[in-house]
Amino acid sequence: MAGPETDAPPAGPGDPSVVVSHVDITYRVYGSGVDAQEDEESALRRLLTRGTRGMGVREVPAVRDVSFVAHRGESIGIIGRNGSGKSTLLRSIAGLVPPTAGSIWLGGRAALLGVGAVLLPKLSGRRNVMIGAQAMGLSPREVRDRMEEIVDFADIGRFIDLPMNSYSSGMAARLRFAISTAVVPDILVVDEALATGDAAFRERAQERIEQIRREAGTIFVVSHNSSTITEMCTRALWMDHGRLVADGVPGPVVGLYSRKYGKYRERWDQARIVGSDVGPEDDVPPAGAAGGGPGRR
Ligand SMILES: Nc1ncnc2c1ncn2[C@@H]1O[C@H](COP(=O)(O)OP(=O)(O)OP(=O)(O)O)[C@@H](O)[C@H]1O
Asked: Does 97 sit in the ligand 1 pocket, CB within 6 Å?
């Protein structure tokens, strides 16, 4: 078992930035294995007479044997149904969840930008910018110099001096994004934070992601929105039941995914593809077999 190992950043675009090698991540959930219908009184009696010995431990395999290499200059979208292991994989890349087996190598620092990322709800947006941007490596003076730019990007206006628990989820997401990208990070992990922004913000976020990519950062984005993946990413990974089932250019990977789970999934058999060797009988590629390449543009 090994957590992310950090090393000196490699030289430039195209160099490997993240190597994920045969990673398994299994959660252990305590207190399961009990009849769901059990009423409170009998559960209490059972606990009093048997202590915790009767508590089951259930293992939830969230990520199974996932391997890929990400490069500097790539923006990688991760798609998959609920519970397919996307967030767990990203949290592991960000160093928050250790792999149960396999290893993750990072060629630089990873910054996680998640829905619940570390901003402090009782403090004002401005205080959060001070703390968050310093955590990203800026000095207090640099943060002060860049404060207006960060606030403008987040488009928070006068709310910047109010406590963050008065923000809408979109406003909080915009501020998180602005803080996390105030410094071009080596590796930026964006877990659904873009989903809450409005269309204008998504456009600005797309530009910022493009800038990070050009400056040879690597970005991972989780999204349930196919167009976010096709518009913002140069590569897509499809996770299914914890496994990586497709890896390649976003259009085809998103196409494969919606072919299996999209609204026309029941009707795939009713189509006949003319003049192509792709047919309805072809199934989704086996684990780790599809795409095969980094899919860089
Ligand atoms: N803290 C946890 N403890 C136990 N099991 C967990 C935990 N977090 C996630 N899981 C389980 O791990 C599996 C993968 O979850 P994960 O959140 O990584 O999937 P996801 O693809 O990001 O889902 P979603 O699209 O709903 O956010 C699921 O079966 C989930 O129930």
From this structure: no
